[in-house]
Amino acid sequence: MLIIALILNMLGIGLFCWLVLTLGVYALPCFVALSVGLAAVHGGTGITSAALVAMLAGAVTLLIGQTAFIWARSSLARAVIAAAFTVPAAIAGYHLAHGLSQIAVPSSLWQHIFNWTGAFAIASTSWKRITSFAEPTALGEACWRNLGRLSWPRRNKDEPQSRSPEA
């Protein structure tokens, strides 16, 4: 029984770490959704309509961020957009690691080391996932290269240039 419990515990911790690293990208849309939802509740709307407005605001934030990152040509603009998504992820990672390290680590120095390690890990994973939204593919590069010129594919030199229907 103890071995099964240890195996399930390790699987649970692994699943939790995977979930945290995967959902780090969505820290900014989650923050926007919570802020809009709380503003809607304090504005006098009901819980259901506030939840719908919050989900819409989070989805729109994610959609605008991904679209802006994909269409941005400047490296500086892409870095700013990626940083806008990465900084809230780093803050969330810091506080997650802080909460977990308070449970198991008695030393304040080691707690801060684990906190900053968690912030860096989640921020770097979030940065990688955000920048992978617009990674060029072979088809995409060919489309952008050939966007300005509309031409037919070149023929081989051995192939005759024109064929008449009568021949």
Give structural notes:
The protein is mostly helical. The protein has helices spanning 2-23, 27-42, 47-71, 75-104, 108-131, 138-145. The model is unreliable at 149-153 (pLDDT under 50).
What fraction of the residues are assigned to beta strands by DSSP? under 5%
- Mind summarizing the main beta sheet? none
Cα-atom radius of gyration: 25 Å
Overall geometry comes to: globular
Structural class: mainly alpha
Low-confidence stretches: 149-153
User: How many helices in DSSP terms?
Assistant: 6
Helix content, binned percent:
over 70%
State the separation between the terminal residues, measured CA to CA: 84 Å
Mean pLDDT across the residues is 82
Quick one: how many beta strands? 0
- What is the ordering of alpha helices and beta strands? HHHHHH
